[in-house]
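Input (structure):
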């Protein structure tokens, strides 16, 4: 069974600010549901982060620890980050888009995957969980970006 879920949210900040935070793998655990750690495990062909770079994420999903590797397929900041899984429990495609909107940025996350034989029975539950999770991701991204900065005295 194929999973194809999309969530979107308007965040009242400019796209370069929203995308700059969301596209930085070092921030993944701060706003992405279930992500415990993220580490760039391969640099882009030209060095740093970009097309060809790989990020290894450790997450908890449906009560299980999941380790997976996403490879950057398209990197066009601040509009688009497109990644495909190259290791993990199921084939997955994750796309982040950030478009100008009259009230700031229309942020969108799309997750596509193939539950395959291993997760076939759980696929309907997984689809609902993914939909809920990416909606919460965008909520948490907005909260993180809009929260007042912490002072050094706090």
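Output (sequence):
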């Amino acid at each position: 069974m194929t999973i194809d879920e999309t969530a979107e949210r308007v965040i009242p900040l400019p796209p370069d600010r929203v995308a700059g935070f969301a596209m930085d793998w070092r921030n993944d655990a701060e706003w992405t549901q279930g992500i415990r750690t993220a580490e760039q495990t391969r640099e882009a062909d030209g060095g740093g982060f970009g097309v060809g770079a790989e990020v290894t994420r450790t997450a908890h999903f449906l009560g299980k620890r999941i380790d997976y590797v996403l490879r950057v397929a398209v990197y066009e900041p601040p509009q688009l980050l497109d990644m495909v899984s190259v290791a993990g429990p199921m084939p997955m495609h994750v796309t982040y888009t950030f478009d100008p909107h009259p009230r700031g940025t229309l942020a969108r996350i799309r997750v596509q995957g193939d539950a395959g034989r291993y997760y076939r029975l759980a696929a309907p539950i997984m689809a609902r969980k993914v939909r809920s999770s990416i909606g919460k991701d965008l909520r948490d991204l907005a909260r993180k970006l809009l929260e007042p900065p912490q002072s050094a005295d706090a």
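Notes: The two ends are 49 Å apart (CA to CA). The chain is about 25% helix and 45% strand.
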